Amino acid sequence: MNHLYTYTSLLEIPALSIPGKQVRFKMEAQQPCGSFKLRGMECACRDALEHGAKKFLSSSGGNAGLAVAYVGNALNIPVTVVLPKTTAAATVDKLHGLNAEVIIHGDAWDEAHAYCLEHSGNDQTIAYIPPFDHPKLWEGHATLVDELKEQMAEEPDLMIVSVGGGGLMNGVVEGLKRNGWEHTHVLAVETEGADSLNRAFEAGHLCLCVIKKQ
After folding, report:
1. Is the distance from CB of 172 to CB of 144 less than 8 angstroms?
2. Residues sharing a CB contact under 8 Å with residue 160, sequence separation 6 or more, in sequence order
3. Over the stretch 73-91, which tens digit does the pLDDT of each residue have?
4. I want to staple 98 with a disulfide (CB 3.0 to 4.6 A). Which of 64, 69, 191, 204 is the partner?
C-alpha cells in the first residue's frame, strides 16, 4: 500500500551534541500537511473505511483536523471538521482548501468534541476521528519509530517527545515496544499552562505505560 505520509529525514544537530552523544531531529514538518499527525490519522481513517465509513468527522482546528482533511481529500472521502469559535480564520481557510466542510460550534474544543460524538452516534457510515485518543492513531504514530529503526545503527538512549493530548507519546511507546527498543527512555515535554500530563501525575491519576522485556 502506498502511504500518504512521508518517510521523513533524521538530521544530526552538531551544535546540540555533547562528547560521546549525538542529538538528532526527526523532521516531521516534512509531512505534506506539516506534522506527524498524518501518520495516525491515515491509519485511523483507513481502518474506518474498512469498517464501512463513508465520511470522516474531526473536532480539531489544529494539526489533527488538517491531517484528517488531507486524508479525506486524497482518498476522495467527505470530511467535516467541527471547530470552536476561537479557531483562527487561517485554519478555516486551510481546511476549505482541502475541500473540508467546516462547522463552528462552541467556545472550546470540548464542545466541538461533544458535538462530534453526538452527531456520529451509531451511524456506521460516519467515522469520528478524534485528535489523540484512539489506538489506531497510536499505531500510525508508531511508524515514526519504525523509520528510526532503519535510520539508526543502534538503539537511542533517549527520545524527547512533545506532549499535548498524548497521542504522539503513546505512539512512540508502542513503536519502541514493537521494535524491541526496551532500554530507550522517553522524556515528555509540555507547554506551561497546558501541562495536563504533569497535572495528572501530580493528582495521582496517571496511567503509566511500561515497556517490559518479554
Report:
1. yes
2. 187, 189
3. 999 999 999 999 999 999 9
4. 69
SS3 61: coil
Dihedrals φ, ψ of 25, to 5°?
Answer: -110, 130
CATH number of the domain within which 147 lies: 3.40.50.1100
Average pLDDT over residues 98-124: 90
Sign of the dihedral defined by the CA atoms of residues 2, 148, 171, 91, in that order = negative
| Half-sphere exposure for 147 (CA within 13 Å, toward CB) | 20
Domain of residue 88 covers 37-134
Whether residues 45 and 126 share a domain: the answer is yes
How many separate domains does the chain show? 2
Assigned domain for 211 exists: no
How, if at all, do strands 101-104 and 185-189 pair?
unpaired
Last residue of a domain, one of 134, 152, 178: 134
User: Which grid cell sits at 87?
Assistant: 479557531
Phi-psi region of 204 (alpha: psi -120 to 50; beta: other; left: phi over 0): left
**In 84-138, which ranges are E strands?**
101-104, 126-128
How do residues 133-166 score in pLDDT, each as one tens digit?
899 999 999 999 999 999 999 999 999 999 888 8
Q: Where is 160: in which H helix or E strand?
A: strand 158-162
